[in-house]
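Final report, section 2: Outcomes. Of the targets proposed, Probable GTP-binding protein EngB is the one most frequently requested by collaborating groups, and we therefore present its record in full.
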Amino acid sequence: MKVVAATFLKSATAAAEYPPPTLPEVAFLGRSNVGKSSLINSLLGMRGLARTSQTPGRTQLINFFEINRELRFVDLPGYGYARVPQAVRERWRPMIEGYLNRRSALALCVLIVDARLEPQPLDLTMYEWLAAMSRRFCVVATKADKLSRSQLLSRLSALRAVYGPGVLPYSALTRAGAEQVWEVIHAAIAA
Ligand code: GTP
Ligand code: MG
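The predicted structure is given below as tokens.
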């Protein structure tokens, strides 16, 4: 897709604040600091659209972005960061689950994992939950630029053994993998 216009639409916590479900949505989820916002920016070729940070827990609301008046990207707050205050963490679960469970416009979930790490317990929980919900989803292994080619290949086979053969390597730094992720997005919104 040629991204002509991508704009921040709004932030929300509860369903009443979501924009009307008039366009297909692609939701990005993963552990805190894994690189969700960076993936969104690099897919769109727009630095700084979704706010990124070295501090985990940067994204605390559900943020909606609109692309070409054709589809929306939804940046979800990350899960699993211990240093985020308990009160904030308790708000996340209903916020994320509420969106994933009930959003009619949701066409694809992109579960983002760290290419350098073994499958993490919370990622596995999220993966199993997505599979059980029978939502269309894919798994993207980001920060691939931090690995050598041979390290990446061995990590990918370990991740694919758990998450299935469709795991896509990605780098927000180099945009390697962007075309493949867009292909999956196109297939989902055309379905
Ligand atoms: P929260 O909103 O806090 O949950 O984090 P997030 O998942 O949105 O992560 P974010 O995109 O803010 O990125 C976290 C940190 O990882 C930032 O310092 C990014 O620059 C870095 N980062 C993200 N993706 C990549 C990547 O593909 N390669 C490299 N080298 N760094 C990355
Ligand atoms: Mg973020």
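The domain at 6-190 is CATH 3.40.50.300 (Rossmann fold).
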